[in-house]
Amino acid sequence: MNKTVPDFLSVKSISLLLVLAMLLAGCATPRPEAMIKVYDFGPAPVPTAATGSLAAVALFEPQVSPALEGNAVLYRLAYADAQQLKPYALTRWSMPPAQLISQRLRQQLGEQRAVVAPGEAAAPFNLRLVLEEFSQVFDAPAQSHGLLRLRATLSQRVGGSETLLAQRSFVVQQPAPTPDAPGAVRALTAASDQVIGQVTAWLALWGRP
Questions:
Q1: What is the sign, positive or negative, of the torsion defined by CA atoms of 37, 67, 143, 174?
Q2: Domain limits at 196?
Q3: What's the maximum distance between 2 C-alpha atoms anywhere in the chain?
């Protein structure tokens, strides 16, 4: 005599299988990208009235070490291993830091002079930047600062040749308000604005064509 499974058991089994499939699908779903926080330097300072009295400068793409090429927000534990750069897992810059600095510098310099890309237009001055350090440095577990080290090289174009005019290294430290990724972002943004002001003032010394 053949026995059949009652209809209510079949429906129950199917329901359990559907629930199990949904649970497995939920476990396999990747973590949402919204958990990663992305930062930039925020709105640029309100510009003053542009004078445009200084000679144009060609701003080259900044150079960086391989460790600074990505978008990671980096830190060092100086009290444990100062030679090791570490990235925060869920925090990113909106673009590589060197590009953020170059973009901000272009905005600042634009108040005083034309800023062009190399080869875009004739400019009597060439400005090259090398970003050497851009990290949060922990002197103790609860104490840290943002450290920015930038080297700037200015040269002058005369005819078809280029002559070195000046080179300067800029080093700025800004205390981090909190010992975490948001604190790193705030400290490094403040350090960047300070360095950009220093570079702008330095270039003004060489601003006449």
A1: negative
A2: 35-204
A3: 106
